[in-house]
């Protein structure tokens, strides 16, 4: 029996469920026996592993988060716990793994591969879109649509009260969500770690706008800059406008996966199963310049995240 186990690990992202379903269905079609590991790396150590039944993955495709649940396990850093995880896999005859998560999870599985030789394929999933080597990670489109809905709502109240709103988006150290959201919602300000900002120039530009009749301001700030509270005070003092701060928080991580996330989940899952069947041992699935592919984990570890240059350029004037 050729067992293949599927797990989700790290921060949850919309698209994980359709990826789980597609991986299970496709693996079975290819003659493998699919297993599900619940609770991520923690579940691997605790033996939370069972053969996938059809009903486990039916009716999950449209659900946000991950039905397999997730974790960020510190125990997995220790060899003794990884050994226990390996023994658990052996009990079930599992000799292939698919991990749907971020680069931390990929690194953990790579260490596991080095220790015990269990091949794995990684599917990038994080709303931050910050995994090197791929243009797209599962969850990003759904998060962007959640953010768009929130900003549209905020705009209603901002226009009604002639106020400025500073809206903080997630993204840890990456400004992708903030930039795309600023562009798609026509924001006046965008502050992200990747772009230098100039508050003096911004003040001059916006004071002129307000004088010319601009009634409200939307400012999108990436959490990684830690600038949201400061900017809210700055707007009050420098633009003489009432300002409020909204931290969107975890609402951005939830919601039913968009069409894009469902289709991308399908493509990533099929690539991951095919990659393992082809005998690859530690590849990460990628979507680059419109094409699916895969790269060695070392490439992910040694490459810097490259943000889309067009988006960076389009946002530049919103930081000044
Ligand atoms: O990596 C995904 C992410 O949602 C980041 O955008 C955010 O900084 C972080 O996870 C939040 O982590 P937690 O859910 O552990 O609070």
UniProtKB/TrEMBL annotation:
Keyword vocabulary terms for this entry: Allosteric enzyme, ATP-binding, Cytoplasm, Glycolysis, Kinase, Magnesium, Metal-binding, Nucleotide-binding, Transferase
Binding-site list for ADP: 155, 186-188
Family of the protein in this entry: Belongs to the phosphofructokinase type A (PFKA) family. ATP-dependent PFK group I subfamily. Prokaryotic clade 'B1' sub-subfamily.
Binding site for ATP: 11, 72-73, 102-105
Domain Phosphofructokinase: 4-275
Main location group: cytoplasm
InterPro entries for this protein: ATP_PFK, ATP_PFK_prok-type, PFKA_ATP_prok, Phosphofructokinase_CS, Phosphofructokinase_dom, PKF_sf
Phylogenetic classification of the source organism: Bacteria, Pseudomonadati, Verrucomicrobiota, Verrucomicrobiia, Verrucomicrobiales
EC code(s) of this entry: 2.7.1.11
Record pathway: Carbohydrate degradation; glycolysis; D-glyceraldehyde 3-phosphate and glycerone phosphate from D-glucose: step 3/4
Catalysis performed (reactions): beta-D-fructose 6-phosphate + ATP = beta-D-fructose 1,6-bisphosphate + ADP + H(+)
UniProt keyword Nucleotide-binding present: yes
UniProt GO molecular function: 6-phosphofructokinase activity; AMP binding; ATP binding; fructose-6-phosphate binding; identical protein binding; metal ion binding; monosaccharide binding
Documented activity regulation: Allosterically activated by ADP and other diphosphonucleosides, and allosterically inhibited by phosphoenolpyruvate.
Coiled-coil residue windows: none
Co-factor requirement: Mg(2+)
Protein residues bound to substrate: 126-128, 163, 170-172, 223, 244, 250-253
CC annotations in GO: 6-phosphofructokinase complex
The protein, known as: ATP-dependent 6-phosphofructokinase
Subunit composition and interactions: Homotetramer.
Keyword ATP-binding: yes
Binding site for Mg(2+): 103
Active site: 128
One example of a Gene Ontology biological process annotation: canonical glycolysis
Species annotation: Rubritalea profundi
């Amino acid at each position: 029996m050729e067992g293949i186990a599927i797990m989700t690990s790290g921060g949850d992202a919309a698209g994980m469920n359709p990826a789980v379903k597609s991986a299970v269905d496709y693996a079975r079609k290819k003659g493998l026996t699919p297993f599900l590991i619940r609770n991520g790396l923690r579940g691997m150590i605790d033996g939370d592993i069972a053969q996938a039944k059809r009903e486990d993955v039916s009716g999950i495709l449209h659900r946000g988060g991950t039905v397999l649940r997730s974790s960020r396990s510190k125990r997995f850093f220790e060899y003794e716990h990884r050994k226990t995880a390996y023994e658990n896999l052996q009990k079930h005859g599992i000799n292939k793994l698919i991990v749907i998560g971020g680069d931390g999870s990929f690194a953990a599985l790579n260490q596991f591969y080095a220790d015990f030789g269990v091949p794995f394929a990684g599917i990038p999933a994080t709303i931050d879109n910050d995994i090197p080597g791929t243009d797209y990670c599962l969850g990003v489109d759904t998060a962007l649509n959640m953010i768009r809905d929130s900003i549209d709502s905020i705009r209603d109240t901002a226009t009604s009260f002639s106020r400025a709103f500073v809206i903080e988006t997630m993204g840890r150290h990456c400004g992708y969500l903030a930039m795309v959201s600023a562009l798609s919602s026509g924001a006046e300000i965008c502050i992200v770690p990747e772009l230098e900002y100039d508050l003096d120039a911004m003040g001059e530009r916006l004071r002129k706008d307000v004088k010319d009749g601009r009634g409200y301001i939307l400012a999108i700030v990436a959490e990684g800059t830690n600038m949201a509270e400061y900017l809210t005070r700055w707007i009050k003092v420098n633009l003489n406008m009432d300002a409020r701060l909204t931290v969107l928080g975890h609402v951005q991580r939830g919601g039913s996966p968009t069409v894009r996330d469902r289709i991308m989940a399908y493509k990533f899952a099929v690539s991951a199963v095919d990659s393992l069947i082809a005998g690859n041992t530690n590849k990460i699935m990628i979507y680059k310049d419109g094409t699916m592919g895969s790269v060695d984990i070392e490439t992910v570890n040694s490459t810097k995240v490259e943000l889309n240059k067009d988006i960076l350029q389009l946002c530049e004037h919103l930081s000044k």
